Amino acid sequence: MPKKLVIKVTAGADAPERCSQAFTVAAVAVASGVEVSLWLTGESTWFALPGRAAEFELPHAAPLPDLLEAVLAAGQVTVCTQCAVRRGIEEKDLIEGARIAGAQLFVQEIMAEDVQALVY
Questions:
Q1: Phi, psi of 45 (to 5 degrees)
Q2: For residue 45, what is the DSSP state?
Q3: Quick one: how far is CA 113 from the chain centroid?
Q4: Structural domains counted in the chain
Q5: Overall average pLDDT of the 87-113 stretch
Q6: How far apart are CA 51 and CA 74, in angstroms?
Q7: Total-model pTM
Q8: How far is Cα 25 from Cα 112, in angstroms, rounded to an integer?
Q9: What is the top-level taxon of the source organism (predicted)?
Q10: Is 26 exposed, middle or buried (0-12, 13-18, 19+ CB in 10 A)?
Q11: Residue 88 DSSP one-character state
Q12: What sign for the dihedral angle of Cα 53, 56, 61, 63?
């Protein structure tokens, strides 16, 4: 089993099932004791802003705020630099515990030993 799981979410409210799957896998991995790094890119970037996860709805899915809270409690949430800039989002706008970082750090994380990467 990998020591770390890096998950890149490219979907937001525009593809709710794919988005929910990514957050669910991240939260379950954290609950299982796996180190998780969740990267929010594209439309999922909006969920790093206060209150935005609460606006997400998908029938028969765990509430996105609960999943995000679980990941933040024991993992890392990162917003893509370019995605943030395109949306006018700055570090000061983010929920507590989230950060903004670029492709260099993403590549560094996924190339580390004992890492599994998933893209949704």
A1: -55, -35
A2: G
A3: 21
A4: 1
A5: 96
A6: 20
A7: 0.95
A8: 20
A9: Bacteria
A10: buried
A11: T
A12: positive
**Owning domain of residue 91:** 4-119
CB atoms near residue 45 (< 10 Å): 24
Amino acid sitting at position 44: S
Q: Name the token pair of 46.
A: 């909006």
pLDDT bucket at 1, cuts 50 / 70 / 90: low
Q: And the tokens for 87?
A: 């949306």
When the pLDDT of each residue in the chain is averaged and rounded to a whole number, the result is: 96
Among 119, 106, 116, CA closest to 29: 116
What's at 71, amino acid-wise? Answer: V
Which structure tokens are listed for 53?
């996860």
CATH of residue 45: 3.40.1260.10
d(CA 37, CA 63): 19
